[in-house]
Design a protein that fits this description.
The structure is a single chain. The protein is mostly helical. It has one domain (7-172). It is built from ten helices and no strands. α3 (27-36) packs antiparallel against α4 (41-64) and α4 packs antiparallel against α7 (87-106). 35% of the residues are buried. GO terms for molecular function: 4-hydroxybenzoate polyprenyltransferase activity. Keywords: Membrane, Transferase, Transmembrane, Transmembrane helix.
């Protein structure tokens, strides 16, 4: 966790994970605009918000496993700020899902996106919130590494929708 945000953020704010979410997801709007060849600001903003919320929640879970080291190093973190209180993480995870829904609606997403990316992600996050024990480093690690499955669900929904849309464009051309 100590390397997830800049040393400046770890010293000055209790929210270094929020700055990490901002930095880690900067490429998403650029990539979206390049693939879609358009700059739909509300759509890209919703997608970016979703990604930032996910980064924030998963990095906070990751930081929970290092709380003793963080206290010893005298740096700040949302893991220390929240402690074992998981509700703020559930709020950010819910915001992630809501932002996915908004993104899907604005982008005219299909059933693949809503079933895999939205519903699959919602079920996975509900499982994470129910199972994560933020005071137990092993539980935090298991929850953090399960995010690979979550990213896979989001990607599968996007890829399915993109493939279906491409097939529809090809068949109507």
């Amino acid at each position: 966790m100590l390397y997830s945000s800049s040393p400046l953020h770890l010293r000055w704010t209790d929210w270094p994970q929020a700055w990490l979410g901002r930095a880690m997801n900067f490429g998403l709007p650029v990539t979206w605009a390049a693939v879609e060849e358009t700059l739909d600001v509300p759509l890209i903003s919703a997608f970016l918000l979703a990604s930032r919320c996910l980064t924030f929640s998963k990095d906070t879970i990751n930081a929970c496993q290092d709380m003793k080291d963080v206290k010893f190093a005298d740096v700040k973190s949302t893991a220390l700020l929240f402690g074992s209180w998981i509700r703020p993480l559930a709020l950010f995870a819910t915001s992630f899902i809501a932002s996915l829904v908004i993104t899907g609606l604005w982008a005219s997403g299909g059933s693949g996106f809503f079933v895999l990316s939205v519903c699959g992600t919602a079920l996975h996050i509900a499982w994470q919130v129910a199972m994560a024990k933020l005071a137990d480093p092993r539980s935090c690690w298991d929850t953090f590494t399960s995010n690979a499955k979550l990213r896979g669900l989001v990607w599968a929904g996007l890829a399915t929708d993109y493939a279906v849309t491409s097939l529809n464009r090809t068949s109507t051309a």
